[in-house]
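Researcher: Structure for this, please.
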Amino acid sequence: VVSTQECDEKQYSALIEALCENNKIPLIKFADNKKLGEYAMLCKMDAEGNPRKVVSASSVAIRDIGCASPGWDYISAKYNITSPVPLPPAPEPVPAPEVAAAPEAVAVE
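Model: Predicted structure, C-alpha cell format:
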C-alpha cells in the first residue's frame, strides 16, 4: 500500500496504517497526493502523453505487481518487500520490424 502524508483525515491515515500493520502488508509513505494520483493513472492523458485533470489520492493498494522489472527490484530492495510468490520474468521486448531500404534514386537525363 502506498499512502500519502498529505491526507486531511487523520483517522483515515491511522486506519490504513493499522490495517497494514495487522495484515503485515508493507506501507510506503509518499509525499504528494497529486503525484500519487498521477502515478495511479487517476487522470486523463493528452495527445502528447502529458497528464491532465489529475485526481489526488490518499492511498493506493497495489494488488498485482505483474512481472519482474528493474522498478520493482528497486522498490522491493528499498522498502524490504518480499513477494509471497515468485514473479514471472519480464517478457522479451518485441523487435522493431525491419524496414526495407529505399530503392536507389535514378538520375533522369
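Researcher: Any notable elements?
Model: The first helix runs from residue 10 to 22. Residues 75 and 81 are 8 Å apart (CA to CA).
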